[in-house]
Amino acid sequence: MGPIQQKALINVDLGEGYGNLKCGPDEELLPLIDIANIACGFHSGDPLIMSTTIRACISHSVLIGAHPGLPDLQGFGRREMKLSPEELTAMTIYQVGALKGFLDKEGARLNHVKPHGVLYGMMCRDLEVARAVMRGVPEGVKAFGLAGTRMEEAARVEGVEFAAEMYGDVKYDGDGMLVIDRVKKPWKKEEVERHVTQQLTTQSVTATDGTTVQLPVKDYPLSLCCHSDSPGCVEIVKTARAVADKFNQEHGYS
Which residues pair with 214 in a beta bridge? Predict the structure, then answer.
């Protein structure tokens, strides 16, 4: 398919602590990224962490999005739950609204909504789930998702602007779906380099079964997602940043 036809940005999930518990090294990651997805309290995050993380993003000129998840603190939003479409829409509105309250207080803009964890995976497979969550995205705000899945279809049906993602520290299965681990596994630097480079330069990825899977990102805005709870996440993000910067420079994307 050839290389992607747009600039590659970096997005990372932040603010995923709770109370005195800290998840990732947000302060070290902020200078390396373009976009943050901030936890909204259901899978992780709390009011004070949301407020503090927003101010830190503003100080680093990082775009801010809401990162709503399933109501599962203990499972970190990485265990499937069966919710009705009405519940899915309502919980999305609730979480996004909470983050937006803090953004309004700081005079900052909500850039996007990106579902978290297993909710993201459920939306990739299930159109009803995907549409229900998309109905909770505020008007005029884009949704981040995996192109070529039910997420993209749901955004189109519900009239939500869509932005595509690729992944720096998540593997894909033979159907092009993400392999969502309950607990993140470590990556070697050369693995991240190879994984990210292949996606940017060929719009494809080597799946866990060894096959090559196409990633049809089309002309959507694009960002590479990495996770703050991955072991060695700072080095992962630094590596993804270096690959993206090299790609952008070589292809004239300032």
Answer: 204
